[in-house]
Specification:
Length: 349
């Protein structure tokens, strides 16, 4: 089968050939891929030290299937031909974290597209636990990026929304691939006043269309911080959700948090440099976000991917995608690097 591989970091991807995967374990599921997305940071090697993946390997970690192609003999929740979306992680189901439904912290997980072969291919091997059947009204290409980008955005915004009250302010930094989903989720599940920041005017236009209450263009000087301070009555926002965390967004972002407010880190790339005295004197919190969970986290009921699919089926969250043929993978990556993609770039075989 055809696959798109990382052959070296900071190098162009290559189209190659690989053996079609087979269901060898009882809970294995082979999915014919309907659409797949990925993340430029993976190509830049930012995960290389954490994943220890051997090159070359097939990327693509946001995977939706046209259909289940083959199942192991222990699989009971799916049948051949089902349309599915895949939770990005393959998890054991047996460790303490998995038993809490907190699969993101599984002690024996693998991550297709990051540390094992992913979905920029015709077929992908995953497990029964990772596959969620799609509502008939949803098409794989329309929801593929919801599997990771959307799930991550939902996870962070839902976490913030559990604390946000009407009259509170929520700042979203970045209205791109994740941010544009975060905006819709915030409007669907929270009554907080939503302020969206982006450097790009077209992204802000989209943010406004998606329901942002205020949009503020960020830029090289710090005037936009003052604008956010004005909107929030000089006090800052209860929640700042940073989908960027690059190019100085954290240093300006932390100036927008209210006393005892929360800074949700979703994007990554730069360090947060905050004097510890500022953290203790204002009791601000920094909260990391990785993908999303299925079920129960301690006392909170969260079922991020399933809840997000409900919002998608209700039409409350729509992905803005640019679709590319699998053969045009390099154009997709180039357009993404050049900032030409609004929303998320998706490869369709
Ligand atoms: Zn586990």
């Amino acid at each position: 089968m055809k696959v798109v591989q990382v052959v070296g970091y900071h190098e162009d991807l290559k189209m190659g050939e690989a053996e079609q995967p087979k269901a060898t374990g009882p809970l294995d599921v082979i999915v014919k891929i309907g659409a797949a997305g990925t993340d430029l940071h993976i190509l830049e090697g930012q995960w290389a030290d954490k994943s220890n993946v051997k090159l070359p390997y097939t990327i693509g970690h946001e995977n939706a299937g046209w259909q289940v192609h083959e199942i192991g003999n222990g699989v009971t929740n799916l049948k051949i031909g089902d349309k599915v979306i895949l939770h990005p992680l393959m998890t054991c189901g047996l460790c303490t974290a998995c038993r809490f439904g907190d699969d993101v912290h599984c002690e024996a997980s693998s991550f297709p597209g990051v540390d094992v072969n992913g979905g920029y291919a015709e077929y992908l091997k995953t497990t029964a636990r990772s596959a969620i059947k799609l509502d008939d009204s949803l098409e794989p290409a329309d929801v593929a990026a919801l599997a990771d980008a959307g799930l991550t955005a939902y996870h962070a915004v839902a976490k913030a929304a559990r604390l946000l009250r009407p009259g509170n302010f929520c700042v979203i930094i970045g209205a791109g691939g994740l941010g544009h989903i975060g905006i819709q989720v915030a409007k669907a599940i929270s009554a907080a006043t939503l302020i969206v920041l982006d450097r790009n005017e077209a992204a802000l236009k989209l943010a406004k269309e998606l329901g942002a209450d205020h949009v503020v263009q960020s830029g090289p000087n710090d005037d936009f911080v003052k604008k956010v301070q004005e909107i929030t009555g000089g006090k800052g926002a209860e929640a700042v959700i940073d989908f960027v965390a690059e190019g100085g967004s954290t240093s300006t972002g932390v100036q927008m948090i209210r006393r005892a407010g929360n800074y949700y880190v979703v994007g990554y790339g730069e360090n947060i440099n905050v004097p510890t005295i500022d953290i203790i004197s204002t009791e601000i919190n920094f909260i990391g976000n990785l993908v999303g969970s299925y079920n129960v986290r301690l006392y909170e009921v969260v079922n991020d991917l399933a809840e997000l699919m409900v919002l998608a089926a209700q039409g409350k969250v729509k992905l803005h995608t640019s679709k590319y043929k699998l053969d045009d993978f390099q154009k997709a990556i180039d357009d993404l690097s050049a900032g030409k993609v609004r929303g998320r770039a998706i490869l369709v075989p």
